[in-house]
Amino acid sequence: MEYTPDLSLCKYEVLGDNDANGLIGRHNAFLRQWNRITSLTKTRIHLLIQYHANNQPGERMKFLLLITSSSDAVLPALHQLVRVSPLADYFHFVPVDWNSLEHQLAWSYCSEAVLKKTERRRNSDMTSEANSQNFFVVSGWKSAEDARLRDMLRVMDALQQNLAYVVSFEGTDAVDTVLRALDRPISYLRKRTSYGFSQKVSLDMTTKVSFRDIAAEETLDEYEKFLTCVAESPCFYANIRTFSDTKTGAELLMSAAVGEAIEEGNAEIFCPLHCETIDEVLASHQYYSSLVPESLVFWPTLLTLEELSPFFRCPILLEGEQIDFPKETKAKYMSGSLPLGRDLLNYPVTLDVDLLKKHAFVCGVPGAGKTNTMLGLCYNLWEKYRIPFLVLEPAKKEYRALAQTDIDSLIVFSPSSGSRFPLAINPFQFPIGMALAEHIQNLDEVFEGAFPLSPPLPALLDRAIEAVYVDHGWDVEDINTGERDYPTMTELYKKLEEELEKTDYDGEVRGNMKSALEMRISSLLRRDLGNVFDVPVSTITPENWTKYPIIIELESLGKGPANFLTLMLCTLIREALRIDPKGDMDKPLRHVIFIEEAHNLIAPVCSDTTGEDANPKSAATSYIVKMLAEVRALREGIVIADQLPTSMAPEILKNTTLKITHRITSEDDRNLIGSSMSASNVQLEELSTYLPGETLVYYEGLLKPFKLRVDMFEQKDAPDNDQLFELMKSRPIHQKAMLFTVQSRLVKIQMQWIEEWKIAMAVYDKLISDCNQFQKHAGDGNLKGELTEIMKDQLGMNSSLNVLKRLAAKHKAWIQSFPNLPRDYVDFQGKAEKDIEAVTYYVTKKLREIKF
């Protein structure tokens, strides 16, 4: 048997028998059918359940249906009959070669327990007679009709021993046999129990006077009941046996079966001195009689269908029940794939890395274990396959925990004020080999997805983007060769202002549009955002975003800019993959994007609405949905994580094959995610009580999701900024990226310093000139105007010096954080400090020379 049926599946509703009672009825129908077949073909059926304690979890139980016959000629026909039997709709049996099976069985048990009906001997109540008679009775039992042997299977799991349970039977037309065996005893008992206190009974040619014999009456009643049962129900010669390495194990297993299968009455369990081999088990029927006369030797192991039925059970599991044998909705265990966790049987579950090409969705309330799951996926992608990834983390800064692992190529960006993990990305830089026109179209979509732009701003933006490229010598039809410079965000903003001035809109409309530009585009030029986006070149070229494991912390950027960066990076990665679709063919997957707290970017609805009602989140959602559909062919995976499924557009759930669902308490969220992963009502109800780390997993090829506990990520505690800086010092790729960005930042500071120095020198020259004029005309009387000019010059000088000092302090802070910078930067710092000191000295000296 390959698996046990999951009765919660809709396909069984069509059959009608989609509950435990219905399946028990199927077992009874099987026995009734094969009662006649085995009788006609001289065949025996054996249901064998084995438990191999040393096997892997999930593989310890085996269920086999064996057919033995005195004639090999009938076996092919019997095989076909099994395939169309009443059990075939639920239980899938596959043929097994006997030679290989014998090896798999590994039959080497030391002890055996046998079940049979209880044999009893009673003496006649006529104790006054010299030759009192013995009466022999075999007691049957009343079966528990709803027995599933579930308790016995649980005992197998609990004992953790090598065990076997075997039911062997063959049908027989027992009426004639029983009549022949009981005809004379029944006749004798009827005469003996005839009504009356004084009778003449002839035994052994001797006439004796007898009174009422209660033992005889009860024996006669048992015989007649047995005869009636045999006449009304199909009968079987059946051997029910258990095997173990210990006598206790065999007896406990049989006791568990008896305790569940028998509702009333008793059965006898005994342990033979000799433990049978598998060949002996499969041989002809054994009577195991120990008390009754030879004529009744068949009785202890002759069972009616009702008596045999509860002992003949393929596994019938209700919703939520589990044994060490797979259901048809089991997880597909894939060796050598991504480790994920352990199932209910503590068996390790792995994921096929190819699943991520069809994308994943991870959800659960805060504290349910989403981040732990995502950290494990990130780490194992790199550890097992060297597959690069990009984590876009809008809050918490938890993924920096990966810096504590052995991912040497890891790069961490955390753009914020004073951060030592800077990032620079020029949106106008695009992959070499790509057409400019295509990148401009993609840029338009990124801006519309990140910022609310009402018409005609999108059209103005498109013209301005093209114009700034043209200013750098580009033609819209050009293919990027890497030889030309790229525009910057400052240039775009200035060009937008120019384009706006060219429009014919009235003052109010133009003012509103200018305000919109100020809020949307100009915000990317100021303070920390300017350091990130308003740069001539990016820290990492577009082609290299898919080559390294990278974490970007977006918390300090703000919602709009963070979404802009997210969409921008997704665009660059998609562009790079399309330019080189055959890259890294030795890997099953090229790259994976992890989008955390996706509700910041993705809306509950997907819409391409434009105009005043346009929603940037809806546009971003459309962009992500389109990307989910396109990048699969490029072997790019996208993992989207969020707390609530209802905050995601339905297209997101539909276009993600792998779903990992942690605890969800809201009913509407459970119903939504459940409908996308074929979860049953029981699974959805249990989902609200999951502990941290417990999850319901679904992916392509499964009929139903399954529960597992995700492996705990060992380095879960994230380091602080200082600890992270120390951890990343030893990673050469990270250091190279940081040095490149820092040098770009230093060059920008130096350019600002030079511009401010020019202003300071102009103020200085004017101050010196005004001071000289004041000294020259000191005795001319009223010099109030000259004095006022000097005071203004002094204030301007102080302001310029303060700006220069702040720039020098920023410059110095970067140099101190990255001591491996080229000497030129240190020299510039020294010169700047000396220049500030000199100017301060000469200004102070000059002012002291003036006698007010």
Overview of this protein structure:
The protein is of the alpha+beta class and 852 residues long. It has 4 domains: 10-196 and 210-311, no CATH class; 340-423 and 539-730, Rossmann fold; 427-536, Helicase, Ruva Protein, domain 3; 734-849, Topoisomerase I, Chain A, domain 4 (Orthogonal Bundle). 43% of the residues lie in helices and 16% in strands. It is built from 25 helices and 23 strands. The strands form 4 sheets. It has an 11-stranded mixed sheet with strand order 14-13-23-22-21-15-20-19-16-18-17. Strand 22 and strand 23 form a beta hairpin. Helix 13 (457-471) packs across helix 14 (489-501). The longest helix is centred in the C-terminal third of the chain and has 45 residues, at 732-776. The chain is elongated. It comes from Flavonifractor plautii.
The quaternary structure here is: single chain
Number of DSSP strands? 23
Q: What general outline do the C-alpha atoms trace? A: elongated
**Gap from first CA to last CA:** 108 Å
Organism: Flavonifractor plautii (Fusobacterium plautii)
Pfam families: DUF87 (PF01935)
InterPro entries: HerA-like, HerA_central, P-loop_NTPase
Domain Helicase HerA central: 346-531
Keywords:
23 strands; Helicase, Ruva Protein, domain 3; 852 residues; 43% helix; alpha+beta; Rossmann fold; 4 domains; eleven-stranded mixed β-sheet
